[in-house]
Amino acid sequence: MKKSLSIIAGVALAAFMMAACNKSNDNPAAPATQQSNGDKVYAYITNLGFAPSNIQDNGTEYIVEGDIIFPKNMQVPADNGKVKTEQFYTGVLVSQTNSRKIRLKVHSTMTSMSAEIDAAIAQWNAVPNCSIHWELATGTSYDVLIQDANLGAGVCGQGQFPAGGLAGALIKINKAQIAGNSFAQRQRTITHEMGHNVSFRHTNWSAIGESSATPVPGVGGTDASSIMNGGQCGSGATVLSAKDKQAAAVLYPL
Ligand SMILES: [Zn+2]
């Protein structure tokens, strides 16, 4: 009797495991509707610590804190933004392999700012002891697209956080807004948005009233010289600060 019970238990366990297996296998294949995936993305954004008051619904995407894009059809990371360790980032990184080659496609609407884009790439690529390496995509394959967009008065650019081990796929630059800025400041906007696409949040998130961010281990705190300070378009730092570089090397070691 005991033996047959254990056999039954074994069969039941095997059946359960198969069901569990099927369930996880089915999940990725199940087509998510735009609406339900959008709800998941909204939950993910709030799990990252952003306050609902800082989330704008833009139709096909959410815009957070003015310059960060979350497409409603994005792949939400498996941890749903809840897994955290301790400037500041989202807790979700570009994979080590992908960070070594981030191909940036310059849309035809942005070729007039090619020199500024080149300068921004050079800044990120010069960070010591850091795996981040951007390069211009010359063919049709790329990881990140940078394009001009009318983002409304006062918004200079928008970046997109990484997901699924990939750099955020899109950078929008409001060319009309930054056209009157100096070369160094136009370049700053592009370098800053590229920082969002590799997970950086605003270093001064607390001072400008944004929701809590995850400190980079050993590199938390404020930094007036950080190029990742928000709300400083046209007036902020134009080069990555010592702490910006230190943080990039901690998150993306060689
Ligand atoms: Zn920003």
Automatic annotation (TrEMBL):
SUPFAM superfamilies: Metalloproteases ('zincins'), catalytic domain. One of its GO terms (molecular function) is metallopeptidase activity. It comes from the Bacteria. It holds the Pfam family Peptidase_M57. Residues 1-19 form the signal peptide. The keyword Heme does not apply. InterPro entries: MetalloPept_cat_dom_sf (IPR024079), Peptidase_M10/M27/M57 (IPR024653). The keyword S-adenosyl-L-methionine does not apply. Keywords: Hydrolase, Metalloprotease, Protease, Signal. This is Zinc-dependent metalloprotease. It comes from Chitinophaga nivalis.
